[in-house]
Amino acid sequence: MLINFSVKNFRSIRDVAEFSMIQTGLRGLKSNTFQSGNNRLTKTAVIYGPNASGKSGFLRAFKALEYLVLRSSSFKPGEKIAPYEPFKLSVNNVVSPVSMEIELSHGGNIYQYHVVFSRERIEFEELYHFPNSVRTLLFSRQSGIPIKFGESYKGGKKTIEKLLLPNQLFLSKAAENNVESVLDPFAFFGKGIMVFPFLEDYRETSLSKLYAKRLAENKNSNFSKRFNKLICALDTGIIGIQAEEVDWSSYNFPSNMPEDIRSSFRDQYKYDIKTQHFIFDGGTKIGIENFDIDEESTGTKSLFVIGGIILDALESGRVLIVDEFEKNMHPSITQFLINLFHNEITNPINSQLIFATHDITQLSNDSFRRDQVWFTEKDEFGSTKLFRCSDIKGIRLGTPLDKWYSSGRFGATPIINDSDFIIEMQSNDD
């Protein structure tokens, strides 16, 4: 579970942006929260803000940290740290390190992990856990200084430290060497969180990459059954979904394509998705017609992707982080998918959803508590500010959040200055 997250000097975020899933003392919508150890957490959080206000950049910070944890142990000597993207509109920040800190719960334990990194090396790295609710050091690392280990750290120390490159995380290297003390927090990034800051990237190949194999090879799994029921329930006109193995015999690959690449391509796109629709003669159903997934509407294809991702998260108890969650979908369908996380029947193991959206209607349907709603806006220096609705003075239980947001009373709405454009449009110059 995600408890807290903060990031500094990353993309448009110059100063510290702090984000929390901890419930405040506000009343209402108890089903939107759950107890996790000593904390009561929200099941979902939504981020609003104008275009280019930093919503995507903030969500991308989660992906950057995930990438570092899962990949840095394989970084080569001298390899640049790709997620290093400092704030570029300040001469001081552009050469300063990026800082990220996360508090999470995984495997029944709570961990605080903090990492600071520059283009070429990890400047600082620290991991704490909370046995008996007491904050206890596991390890602390600072560039150029021997690593400090806490008394509760169990596993290799000096051997791993000697193998560690300046651009690699100790957390990643220790997990690679099966150090018991770090396996839970490391596993969170591999099995406990799913980050999709650019969902558009996953739409082109749709289920052929994400879910076709699962549907084809295990038709009776809970995922396959639930996926079918979900798509068919949402007024798409689809009555069933099936995956079929692609017949490559009639497909001509380029003659100069190496066989290993052909084999990899055939394996990656081994299955094709078919949707089923009723055929009618007048008002009578007379049969079923199979459609290729590419024949479906853009909204339906979007639903296939986000629906599969959501079912994955609900099934595994993961934290799901998605940008532009609602794209190409009707607001009623978006609301239904969000409420899957709030319902104890559909979310029995308390998966969490964090997403950015422009769909203001979700603020008007009582889906969210005020401590679940966040806003981003940029100041006069181009720096992103992140703040929570419940921290704004004057907000009460019955406040119409959608109307206040639309009117600009929360900030975080675009300020359109069209005077120069209108003047230019009136010009007759060639």
Notes on the protein architecture:
28% of the residues lie in helices and 26% in strands. The protein has 430 residues and is α+β, with helices and mostly antiparallel strands. The protein has two domains: 2-197 and 323-406, Rossmann fold, CATH 3.40.50; 208-298, no CATH class. The strands form four sheets. The protein has a seven-stranded antiparallel sheet. A six-stranded mixed sheet has the order 11-15-16-5-17-18, sandwiched between helices. Helix 3 (170-176) crosses helix 4 (180-192) and helix 7 (222-233) runs antiparallel to helix 9 (298-316). It starts with a strand and ends in a 5-residue tail after the last helix. The model has no long low-confidence stretch (mean pLDDT 87).
Write the layout of secondary structure elements.
Elements: E1 2-8, E2 17-20, E3 33-36, E4 39-42, E5 44-48, H1 55-71, E6 98-106, E7 109-117, E8 122-129, E9 136-142, E10 145-149, H2 158-163, H3 170-176, H4 180-192, E11 193-196, H5 206-210, H6 212-217, H7 222-233, E12 240-245, H8 259-268, E13 271-281, E14 284-292, H9 298-316, E15 319-322, H10 331-342, E16 352-356, E17 373-378, E18 384-388, H11 401-406, H12 419-425
Parallel strand pairs: 5-16, 5-17, 11-15, 15-16
Antiparallel strand pairs: 1-2, 1-6, 3-4, 6-7, 7-8, 8-9, 9-10, 12-13, 13-14, 17-18
